[in-house]
Input
Amino acid sequence: MEDALTLGLFDPDHRGRARSKAVTSWGETKSFHDWMSDPRVTVHRNLILERLRLGWPPEEAMTTPSGTRRRAA
Output
């Protein structure tokens, strides 16, 4: 959860509970939590969080197989 908080995907509300922020991918906007249930997402959530932190586009972060390095732009 710390990675998600650091990345800004979760934002504590006034009750001290975290709520998920929206992530847009494939033309759809959903909470990070909802994306984890999407069948197009094929990568573990911790890897997605790390990739998003590194600046990967959401589609690539959620579908590129583990162990694959992203080419420099």
User: Anything to note?
Assistant: The chain has four helices and four strands. The radius of gyration is 13 Å. The mean pLDDT is 78.
